[in-house]
Amino acid sequence: MEKRAILEMQNITKRFPGVLALDNVSFEAYSGEILALCGENGAGKSTLMKILSGSWPESTYEGKIIVDGQVCHFTDTEKSEKAGIAMIYQEISMHLDETVAENIYLGRWPKKRGMIDWKKMNKDASVYIEMVGLEADPEDVLRNLSTSQQQLVAIARALTKHPKILVLDEPTSPLTLAESDRLFRILHNLKEQGIACILITHKLTEVFANADRIVVMRDGKTISVRQMRDATEENIVTDMVGRKIDSYYPKEKTAIGNVVLEVKHMTVTHPYAANKKIVSDVSFSVRSGEILGIGGLVGAGRSELVNAVFGKIAPEEGEVWMEGKRLKIRSCSDAIRAGIALVTEDRKTDGIVGCLGIRENIALASLPQLSKYGFMKGREEKEQTSWYFDEISIKAPDMDTRLQQLSGGNQQKVVLSKWLMRKPRVLIMDEPTRGIDVGAKYEIYKIMVELAKQGVAIVMISSELPELISMSDRVMVLSEGRVSGMLSREECTQEKIMRLATAAVG
Amino acid sequence: MKQKSILRKLFSSKELGIFIPWLIICLVTGAVNHAFFSANNIINLLRSISITLLGAIGVTFVLISGQMEMSVGSTMGLASLITGMCMDRYQLPVAAAILAGLMAAAVIGFVNGMIISRLKIPALIVTLGTMYIGRGAINVISKGVPFGGFPDSFNQLGQGTLFSIPYSVYIAFVAMIIAMVVLKYTVFGRSIMAVGGNSETARLSGIPINRITVITYIISAVTAGMAGILTASRLSSAQANAGNGWEMTVISAVVIGGTSMYGGSGSIVGTLIGVAIMETLTVSMTMLRVDAYWQKIVVGVIIIFAVGVDTYRRARASSDKG
């Protein structure tokens, strides 16, 4: 069969304030192929697909989209669907309390004289249910199905629109191996019918087993397009990494002391797939003065690992030891009292209180220390919080400025100050410089180094490979919830980390 | 330039923004009906403001912590009834009867707080449930018959005056000062602000959010109970319908006072003015001969307007960050 380009995206450029998310990207997909789209976190894959789906309307970017030889103007998602593009997102967005058939035909219910024709809907739905190999009745309620079955419903729903292009974002991450295999059999089937399947994935084994072609993106650019038969793991990994080390990292050699924190056999259940573990049997330790980096791709379980250590989420099993003593962590306050601090990944949801001022936010974790008989020691609070305000040079008119008025970098400095005030012995930082400008980044690195010198043990999760390599004394790489490798500072390279991050473990 | 900014600050201050409308209500009513400024009317107005203020203080705490409280009306009625029953049916001493009434209220608050924080059932639903349960319990106990014949010392509580100002005004004033101090200068006050502003951040900072929730509901129930007991004393009678629909007056007053329905911010002074507006409005509309049926419509419009202003403020605050 002659392969023809069903989709051409030409010279797409998309700017966010201060960032060039997509830089003149061109992208093609052929009908009847499985095309893998790979790249680091933040390489621009999702942005590109959001443009294709119409989530970013035409006016917000430059470039041209041609589907089946026709120039398209996607001003909304509906137009994109009509052109034959169907998206299946990682987090399945469906109505759990409605039936399979209702979900498949949501918003497009077959009607008879203005009323929903339930009989026809259920009958039509069963055709698609069979097509995707789902073992369920059209009238089953979605909540009672497993995650993989729900995903098949999502695919069935997409197929009812007769798509020419099907985009799947990390479809296998909540699935077990057997379930993934079944999903790929269905994809191969769809491919035979002439549908172009675009697969966004981190798992190179899947790519090698199933894809026909692979596109690698990095920093908003297409780096390479290869036929799978010409590709090797070596050159794909090389294409994925190689981000320039463009900022200066003030890392210094520090005296590394005894083990402070030790985590043993940490296991955490997957948030939306009960039969899967997002973190399975992870053990590691950090020494005083050491910065331990944790690398890995989105969904590898890095945040869940540290959240479980801090008591933010409850692990299935696992032990946390601090200086040779086992901790019983039932809540975050247990962890805080033991000397652990956590700077979370998403400041807005769980790092700051936006409607309170800088002083209140800095004092938040130290209320017992700053009070007597339940009353705040006003002057002491003011003195201590101002000390951090000056020392960390938070840029704001005064200490009463509300957090929601600060920039991301200054918010992060407030969060850091809050924890520094507790004088933690272990500081865990989840993506500490995400969404922060270069200047503030540098200042945060300086603080980390200073803390390490004082003997604090630091754990840093980062998706930015240069940052991870330059700031860490050791890097632990997670892949699919397991430790896929531990690299010393000397052996750390972007390629090695990426290879471990995309490796299949266990 | 500087003067302008001071002026702007003054007018953007939440309290002033509602103090002026209250003043206008008073002046307009007084101009039309001179009886509004009579000593008698002012004292009566002060008395009803003070009683509603007690309940509103508790609800202010609950709303700041980001929750909802529908059961204050029933709690008020139950406290009033239990106190009345203890004196009328069991001839208990006044102090013991009052204590029993407050304890009954505290139990409702404790139950509310425990269910909301431990079982994570939405506060609106839980307190709606306890509102019905409380009202039901009142009817079961009283069978619709009011308790009365209280000792004089009890009746003095709601009827007596000092320097011709009712006792209840002093009680509410003290409660208000305590609430302001708690909110501003204590760990507890700081904690409820944080929980209401972002409960996940508060939890991750080691604040015992469940305990905070339970305590706020107990405070709210006890202050409502105090209002109930004062009402019984004022009327020399504990009635089954006491506090019926009162939750709406109280919540409206708190929201008009600038406490956010979304939690995280609020002020006791604002609540005082909110209560003043609600109570004055009732008196004014009667004095201005506004049809009783229309009064509810006016109040409804004001509530939506007050919440609308709060929502608009929030939307602006979150969009203007740099």
Explained architecture:
The complex is a heterodimer of chains A (506) and B (322). Chain A has 506 residues and is α/β, with parallel strands linked by helices. In chain A, the strands form six sheets. A six-stranded mixed beta sheet of chain A has the order 6-9-10-3-11-12, sandwiched between helices. In chain A, 49% of the residues are buried. In chain B, β2 and β3 (165-166) form a beta hairpin. Chain B has a domain at 39-243. In chain B, 48% of the residues are buried. The chains are: A alpha/beta (506), B mainly alpha (322). Chain A binds chain B through residues 310, 312, 331-333, 336-337, 342, 344, 349-356, 360, 363-365, 367-368, 371, 374-376, 378, 402, 404-407, 418, and chain B through 185-188, 190-191, 193-194, 197-198, 200-208, 260, 264-265, 317-318, 320-322.
Short précis:
The complex is a heterodimer of chains A (506) and B (322). Chain A is α/β, with parallel strands linked by helices and 506 residues long. Chain A is 32% helix and 28% strand.
Core attributes:
heterodimer, A: alpha/beta, 28% strand, B: 322 residues, mainly alpha, two-stranded antiparallel sheet, two-stranded antiparallel ribbon, 77% helix, globular
Radius of gyration of chain B: 20 Å
Strand order of the largest sheet of chain B: 1-4
Beta-strand content estimate of chain A: 25-35%
Q: Within the largest sheet of chain A, what's the order of strands?
A: 6-9-10-3-11-12
Which chain pair shows the most residues in contact?
Answer: A-B, 34 and 27 residues
Quaternary structure annotation: heterodimer
Provide mean pLDDT of chain A, rounded: 87
Shape of chain B: globular
The end-to-end distance of chain A, rounded to whole angstroms, is: 39 Å
- Tell me the major beta sheet of chain A: 6 strands, mixed
Name the overall outline of chain A. globular
The share of residues in extended strands of chain B comes to: under 5%
**Number of strand elements of chain B:** 4
Task: Count the beta strands of chain A.
Answer: 24
Distance between the termini of chain B: 24 Å
What's the pLDDT, averaged over the residues of chain B?
A: 88
H-E order of chain B = HHHHHHEHEEHHHHEHHH
Structural class designation of chain B: mainly alpha
- The helicity of chain B comes to over 70%
